[in-house]
Amino acid sequence: MRHTRMLFLAPLLLTLACGGDEPRKAAAGGAASPAAAVRADASGEADTQELADYVLTMDDVRKWSQATRNLRNAKPVEQQSDASDDDDDGSIDAMERKISANPQFRAEVEKAGLEPREYVVIMSTMVQASMLQYALEQGANRDSVVAKSGVNPANLEFVRAHKQELEQLQKAMQAQ
Fold first, then answer.
1. pLDDT confidence of residue 67
2. Which of 24, 78, 123, 169 is least enclosed, having the fewest CB within 10 Å?
3. Is 28 helix (H, G, I), strand (E, B) or coil?
4. Which residue positions in the chain have pLDDT lower than 50?
């Protein structure tokens, strides 16, 4: 359960670190532009399928953890982004563009051995699988969870089987 809480913070930290404005807009009662909403609908199915096709490995999760630590320790640099707020629909593509558009963030992710898209997919898959594995631990029906979410069952098993190692990675990330 403890690793789940940390994983929930990762997308928020990434969005804030990459300069995303959507959390501030949402907090102020604003919404994304209609164009962003249409793109989000179109990309949602593709994102769901990409996460379902991805199979987590400890090697990739370790790289993701290192990249996250690298990003947290990076010195902030004033960055003028070419990406507009309309481009921030929360999709895998949009998050990848945000990282790729910032040379410092891209370098920190690549230093850990990942490409920006891999970083986003691993992070999203971990969040999804961790949340759903927690639901299973609370008594949710596995078949129902898999059917409704589209989660790859191998990723649920991965989170269950590597719980101790994932908790250790979380502790290491929190210690920095």
1. 95
2. 78
3. coil
4. 1-40
Q: Could you give phi then psi for residue 88, rounded to 5 degrees?
A: -100, 85
Number of domains in the chain: 1
Judge contact between 156 and 133, C-beta under 8 A. Answer: yes
CB within 8 A of 18, min separation 6: which ones? 95, 98, 99, 102, 105
Residues making up the chain, counted from first to last: 176
Q: How far apart are CA 96 and CA 121, in angstroms?
A: 9
Plot region of 113 (φ>0 → left; ψ -120 to 50 → alpha; else → beta):
left
* Residue given tokens 């991805």 in the structure block: 54
Per-residue H/E/C for 96-126:
HHHHHHCHHHHHHHHHCCCCHHHHHHHHHHH
Q: State the burial class of residue 138 (Cβ atoms within 10 Å of its Cβ: 0-12, 13-18, 19+).
A: exposed
Q: What domain range includes position 119? A: 2-175
> In the prediction, which pLDDT does 50 show?
95
Global pTM reads: 0.74
